[in-house]
Amino acid sequence: MVRLPLQCVLWGCLLTAVYPEPPTACKEKQYLINGQCCSLCQPGQKLVSDCTELTDTECLRCSKGEFLDTWNTERHCHQHKYCDPNLGLRVQREGTSETDTTCTCEEGRHCTSDACESCALHSLCSPGFGAKQIATGVSDTICEPCPVGFFSNVSSAFEKCRPWTSCETKGLIELQAGTNKTDAICDSQHRMRALVMIPIVTGILFAVLLVSVYIRKVVKKSEDKVRGSPSREGVHQSHLEGLLNDRSLGPTSRGSGSVGLGWGSRSCISNEFPR
């Protein structure tokens, strides 16, 4: 009974000698190498050589145009990003030894991805639509249709839908209702009445003109008929006047042949125009 515990103790000692316990975990900002903990290189520096029992980790600062943004064991620094103007990019923030260069898009463009490696033009909201969310350097325009009472008559990346003009509040009347693309059209009441009266008055004047022209034609035609056909009484009166003239000439010409001429004339006149 005594031999069993003794054997367990012997086996435990043997296993401990063959398989030693692993060392405890390294602290934060350290790394394990060759059985010992070495310090990590801080941001902006790269690893040159690991630590030893006598020396600490050796690090070197990144060169210009390079960076490392974490505690690391990197042997090489990363190159700063290049903001290519041919892709519509520009530098938003210059890089340092600890941070990368930040690119953004030129005015009127936005990044096509989170990494912002290229740009695209902002979308335009067509007439009848307004900008719900204006585009930024990293996001495109978000458009929405104009609701009833609002309109947009332009293609724009930033114009929102505008409300229709209220004719009533301005003391005007509405000639034409607004749509999602056009504003309401207003006008004054006096102008509206004038617009209604103008064709009416014009029609009345035109009718009066036609009637007056017709009356003038009828009157002129009647006068022409009267002048062309003299009355019977007028003819007799003219001939009687001639007869009287002849008789007045008769007595003043006694003893001459003029008396016979005068009466002869009267007989001719009488024969020509019988009673």
Automatic annotation (TrEMBL):
Residue ranges constituting the TNFR-Cys domain according to the UniProt record:
25-59, 61-103, 104-143
Keyword set includes Chaperone: no
Q: What CDD domains would the database entry show? A: TNFRSF5
S-S bridge residues? 38-51, 41-59, 62-77, 125-143
The family database entries (InterPro entries) matched by this protein are listed as: TNFR/NGFR_Cys_rich_reg (IPR001368), TNFR_5 (IPR020435), TNFRSF5 (IPR052135), TNFRSF5_N (IPR034021)
Start-end of the TNFR-Cys repeats? 25-59, 61-103, 104-143
Q: Where in the cell is it found?
A: Membrane
Stated role: Receptor for TNFSF5/CD40LG. Transduces TRAF6- and MAP3K8-mediated signals that activate ERK in macrophages and B cells, leading to induction of immunoglobulin secretion.
Which protein is depicted?
A: Tumor necrosis factor receptor superfamily member 5
- What organism is recorded for this protein? Galeopterus variegatus
